[in-house]
Specification:
The protein is mainly alpha-helical. α2 runs antiparallel to α4 and α2 packs antiparallel against α6.
């Protein structure tokens, strides 16, 4: 296996290293960080764990995306493939989620990923995907429920009770969240890097985890 292939296959596993580093920093410098920084760094940790839950363990999100949500006729490589998923998710975590940690006073910048976690991630995984699969769990649900939801609740509580957010912050946060997600996952991951003849298909075990394809087929009966 080449280095590039190894990275495409295991980028979400390496995210656990970033998770540990961020967690150690959060604990060690807790008293030096303002409350919003604490929550934003925790939110960064949550999204890394969320990506690991989707693609690493228990995994199964490639099938959720390509089979359940996008109904692909080549689900092992289109619209999502190993290359597109790696690039889009790394940008999502290390730009969209990590950048606000360094600028906690820019409320709209930090509020945007919070709003993606809840309600978007929460309802997407917990409600929409599970409804399609007729299940109680699908990859991404655990971190959405026990990570994104409480972080969003505490962050929004902090900015509201301390009167830190203006109407413009909410508007810019909403527009930035939708815009970044559209560019990252729509334009980059699907339109630009999506290819029915992609040389970077998901491995068979990635597609078979959680037996998503079988569950979806049964749910359609």
């Amino acid at each position: 296996m080449t280095t590039s292939k190894f990275l495409r296959r295991h980028w979400h596993d390496f995210g656990l290293i970033s998770t540990v580093v961020a967690a150690v920093y959060l604990i060690a410098d807790w008293s030096q960080l303002v409350a919003l920084q604490q929550l934003l760094l925790l939110n960064f940790i949550v999204v890394l764990l969320h990506q690991f839950e989707e693609y690493g363990w228990p995994g199964g999100f490639p099938a959720v995306a390509n089979i359940v949500m996008l109904r692909s006729d080549r689900p092992d490589r289109y619209p999502l493939n190993q290359q597109s998923s790696m690039v889009a998710n790394l940008l999502f975590a290390y730009v969209f989620y990590l950048l606000p940690v360094f600028f906690p006073k820019m409320i709209w910048l930090g509020l945007a990923p919070v709003l993606v976690g809840f309600p978007l991630q929460f309802f997407g995984h917990v409600i929409i995907v599970n409804k399609k699969l007729k299940s109680l769990y699908s990859p991404g649900v655990a971190t959405a429920v026990f990570g994104h939801l409480p972080v969003a609740a505490f962050y929004i509580y902090q900015i509201c009770t301390n009167h830190l957010a203006t109407g413009w912050d909410w508007l810019f946060a909403f527009l930035y969240a939708i815009g970044f997600a559209a560019l990252d996952f729509g334009a980059l991951e699907v339109a630009l890097l999506g290819d029915k003849n992609s040389r970077y298909p998901f491995d068979q075990d990635e597609m078979e985890r959680m037996e998503i394809g079988k569950k979806f087929a049964l749910a359609q009966r």
